[in-house]
Amino acid sequence: MKPLKQKVSITLDEDVIQKLKILSEDCDRSLSQYINLVLKEHLRELEKEESPTETL
Length: 56
What we know:
Elements: H1 14-26, H2 31-50
Helix pairs in contact: 1-2
């Protein structure tokens, strides 16, 4: 089963919206799908930065 999604409303700068629309079309995704994908990737990167790194 797919994870549940929740509707939200956000306000973005016009230039950001235009760039996101172009990028989402290039990936053959809806704007919403693309924004979700980008945010997930960003959160993964933040988690990597926060996790302690081991030194050998």
